[in-house]
């Protein structure tokens, strides 16, 4: 399993609890740590999309802390449960993914997770290994261990039931299958976001039912997106993807508010707590929060790219926003247009500055779009052909767009 570090239990707990939301039950985990043996620490992710963003890494960072203490990290790819689709937080049934889609996404997840975790100290598991073997009889026996009433205690199910919205039978199986993963893995600790608490507790209860010592549960907060309001989400456009280019990551992190900066540092930085406290003292004494933000942004860029990439991203940012210059490598886009030209929403979408017309409309309405340095407010603004425009969305994305 590996070698456990000789760290006092209270120090180990302090590291484990850093930035965490809730630990169930702390006394139980303290007893497990006191045994001096490596614990099996589980994190399960359903690879429902190919890319991870910083919100996903909050809980993966916590796995790294367990690794640093010498515990065995079990990174579970939910290739079986992903075909069911986690109903957490959903107000309608999700379309299930195929096994092929899930395996393709899983390869991407693994590569991205290893930017944070030590591959030599990480076990990658797939829950189809034991879930496929259950068969029809095994599924029925598992389902007999939990009641519908308890499943409907879950907030999202309860709301949908009261509202008369459909709940497919396979969705009721999801918490059971996630809980059965903990039984199969004999997990000592399971990690998850606060929205996963119900599912994690099902695993704890099933372990008791199977005669195992119940796992402890550590939940981590849901990271706010760049807007500082909503949970980080690709669909909302408020995310920082860890596979994005270095300059994109740096620029996005520099765009967050000074208040949100401390939240990001707490949940994402690997700097010692005392170092972060020192930064806060500097800002309280009059230092510019922007300098702290730049240190943090460089740390994150270096984690997912390289230190030289982080240095170059900082320099490009300084040129663009402190000195009013555009970097030389602004992507150029050529767009074909009818004689009357292209409307602004088409330009944003076709040049890759917005993923959809609705997002383009929202960006313009929020005042986040500039053309040749001037903010546009009318989504019907036309771009006549025969010219090149510098189109900028927020402080992050710029294109030289030639309309022909």
Molecular structure report:
The chain is of the alpha/beta class. It has 17 helices and 13 strands. The mean pLDDT is 85. 47% of the residues lie in helices and 14% in strands. It has a 6-stranded mixed β-sheet with strand order 1-6-5-2-3-4, sandwiched between helices. Strands 7-13-12-9-10 form a 5-stranded mixed β-sheet, covered by helices on one side. A two-stranded antiparallel sheet has the order 8-11. 34% of the residues are buried.
Spell out the blueprint of helices and strands.
Blueprint: H1 9-17, E1 22-24, H2 26-34, E2 40-45, H3 54-68, E3 72-77, H4 81-84, H5 99-113, E4 122-126, H6 128-143, H7 148-151, H8 155-162, H9 169-185, E5 189-193, H10 197-209, E6 216-220, H11 246-254, H12 258-268, H13 273-284, H14 289-304, H15 307-322, E7 332-335, E8 342-343, H16 344-350, H17 357-365, E9 369-371, E10 374-375, E11 382-383, E12 387-393, E13 397-403
Parallel strand pairs: 2-3, 2-5, 3-4, 5-6, 7-13
Antiparallel strand pairs: 1-6, 8-11, 9-10, 9-12, 12-13
């Amino acid at each position: 399993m590996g070698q456990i570090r000789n760290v006092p239990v209270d120090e180990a707990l302090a590291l484990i609890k850093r930035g965490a939301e809730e630990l169930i039950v702390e006394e139980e985990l303290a007893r497990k740590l006191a045994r001096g043996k490596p614990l099996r620490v589980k994190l399960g992710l359903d690879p429902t999309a190919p890319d991870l963003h910083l919100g996903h890494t909050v809980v993966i960072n916590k796995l790294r802390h367990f690794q640093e203490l010498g515990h065995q990290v079990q990174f579970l790819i939910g290739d079986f449960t992903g075909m069911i689709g986690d109903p957490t937080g959903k107000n309608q049934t999700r379309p299930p993914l195929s096994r092929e889609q899930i395996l393709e996404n899983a390869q991407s997840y693994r590569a991205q997770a290893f930017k944070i975790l030590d591959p030599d100290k990480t076990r990658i598991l797939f829950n189809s290994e034991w879930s496929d073997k259950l068969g029809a009889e095994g599924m029925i026996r598992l389902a007999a261990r939990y009641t519908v009433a308890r499943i409907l205690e879950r907030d999202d199910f309860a709301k949908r039931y009261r509202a008369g919205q459909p709940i497919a039978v396979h969705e009721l199986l999801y918490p059971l299958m996630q809980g059965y993963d903990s039984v199969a893995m004999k997990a000592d600790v399971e990690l998850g976001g606060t929205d996963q608490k119900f599912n994690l507790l099902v695993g704890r209860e099933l372990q008791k039912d199977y005669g195992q010592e119940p796992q402890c549960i550590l939940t981590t907060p849901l990271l706010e997106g760049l807007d500082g309001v909503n949970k980080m989400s690709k669909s909302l456009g408020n995310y920082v993807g860890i596979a994005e280019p270095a300059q994109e990551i740096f620029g996005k992190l520099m765009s967050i508010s000074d208040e949100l900066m401390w939240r990001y540092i707490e949940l994402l930085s690997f700097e010692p707590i005392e170092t972060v406290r020192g930064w806060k003292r500097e800002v309280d004494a009059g230092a510019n929060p922007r300098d702290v933000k730049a240190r943090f942004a460089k740390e994150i860029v270096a984690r997912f790219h390289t230190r030289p990439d982080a240095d170059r991203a900082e320099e490009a940012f300084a040129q663009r926003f402190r000195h009013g210059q555009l970097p030389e490598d602004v992507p150029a886009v050529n767009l074909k247009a009818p004689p009357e030209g292209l409307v602004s929403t088409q330009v944003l979408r076709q040049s890759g500055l917005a993923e959809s017309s609705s997002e383009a409309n929202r960006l313009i309405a929020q005042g986040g779009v500039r053309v040749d340095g001037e903010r546009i407010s009318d989504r019907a603004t036309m771009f006549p052909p025969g010219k090149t425009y510098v189109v900028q969305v927020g402080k992050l994305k710029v294109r030289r767009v030639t309309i022909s």
